[in-house]
Amino acid sequence: MTSLRSCLCMTILAGILLASLGIGVAQTKTPAASSAAKPKRAAAASKTYSPQLVQQGGAVFRQDCSFCHGRDATGGESGPDLTRSKLVAADVDGDKIGPVVRNGRPDKGMPPFARSDEQIAGLVAFIHTQLQNAQSAGGRKGNGGRKGVDPEDLQTGNADAGKQYFNGAGGCANCHSPTGDLAGIASRYKGLELEERMLYPRRPKSTVTVTLISGQEISGTLSYLDEFTVGLTNADGIYQSWRTRDVKYKVNSPAEAHVDLFSKYTDADVHNLMAYLQTLR
Questions:
Q1: Using an 8 Å Cβ cutoff, are 242 and 229 in contact?
Q2: Helix, strand, or coil (residue 132)
Q3: 10-69, pLDDT tens digit by residue?
Q4: Domain 12-148: which topology?
Q5: Which of 28, 34, 71, 211 is least surrounded by CB atoms within 10 angstroms?
Q6: 3-state secondary structure of 174
Q7: Could you read off the pLDDT of 102-139 as tens digits, one per residue?
């Protein structure tokens, strides 16, 4: 993940399939060129990678990609089965996988991943090895649909470090409490659902408190705000508004804190925080 906003790995193959289609349309090969390319693809598909490189790639994959594609690359709740990918099958030494990983597919919700050449090589080795394992097993029955991601796929962080982040640099404790609103959250939400609640909380409505010249404070749901007017709807459903120059007001937007964190998170922050939240049962 980029300093991820880790979390969370959004469908390598959703972009991969479209990219592969685009490549297929753009290139027109002569029969000779096509036949020349087949041995190269076949050699790539049967290439054997060192166990160390596969292990390194598996570690990166589990950290960045298992959220969507499962630990074994055979599909998850929001990411397809990479062992059935046409682009993966046509990939030669990362020439197709690498650009998709690094550039992402923002239009499909997949962020770019700033990964080194060595990390990309490991990812390629791991994914191709999983493809070879699937082929040697004679393929899997079914339609290649997505599977659920096990909670274990998301347990890659350090819970103690996550707790420190929660109470310190992350500022989470300013709005949330492990014995209050978050008590038992890991029992209510599991796996990707918990991850999504952490990174993309449902936006509660913003509230506002308006202080009149008299000192009276009026609070309610923020209904309107521009440089000239501030308006709210109170608990009785009555709309009220004032000229901003005549009052003081304070807007409370709980979800904005989560949005701000996206530019501050590191990969470790997200994984560690997720590990800590999974202890709140």
A1: yes
A2: helix
A3: 433 334 333 343 333 334 344 444 444 455 555 555 688 999 999 998 888 887 787 777
A4: Cytochrome Bc1 Complex; Chain D, domain 2 (1.10.760)
A5: 28
A6: helix
A7: 887 666 666 788 889 999 999 999 999 988 888 876 54
